[in-house]
Amino acid sequence: MDAFESLVRRYQHRVYALCRRLTGAHQSADDLAQETFIKAYFALGRFEAAWPLYPWLRKIAVNAGLNYLKARSRERPLEDGLLGDRHTPVAAAGDDPEERLERAEFQARLDGAVESLPADQKSVFVLRFHESLSYEEISRTLELPLGTVMSRLNRARQKLKERLADPPGRGA
Question: How far apart are the C-alpha atoms of 67 and 12, rounded to whole Å?
Answer without folding.
Answer: 20
